[in-house]
Amino acid sequence: MDDLINVFHNDRSGIYIVFKDFIIVFEHLLYYIHETIMKQRKAKNKPLPLKIEGQGS
Questions:
Q1: Is the Cα torsion angle 10, 12, 13, 19 positive or negative in sign?
Q2: What is the mean pLDDT of residues 36-41?
Q3: Which end of the chain is more exposed for a tag (fewer CB within 10 A), N or C?
Q4: Separation CA 44–CA 17 (nearest Å)
């Protein structure tokens, strides 16, 4: 019976490690999404350059 309890205990700690790694990966994914959105927003809000007289039509 003690061996069975030890197996469940070991699996639980292994799952906890995987869960922590999943959280880290998820945080990095959210950061990447945030950076992409901010870059798109900056590009969208960037004004177009004005044409200078005498340099084409």
A1: positive
A2: 92
A3: C
A4: 41
How big is the chain by its Cα radius of gyration, in Å? Answer: 26
Q: How far is CA 57 from CA 4, 47, 48, 49, in A?
A: 82, 19, 16, 14
Q: Tally Cβ neighbours within 10 Å of residue 45.
A: 7
Residue 21: band (very low, low, confident or very high) from pLDDT cuts 50, 70, 90: confident
Residue type for position 41: R
Phi-psi region of 38 (alpha: psi -120 to 50; beta: other; left: phi over 0): alpha
Tokens in use for 34? 């945030």
- Decide: helix, strand or coil at residue 4: helix
**Residue 30: predicted pLDDT:** 95
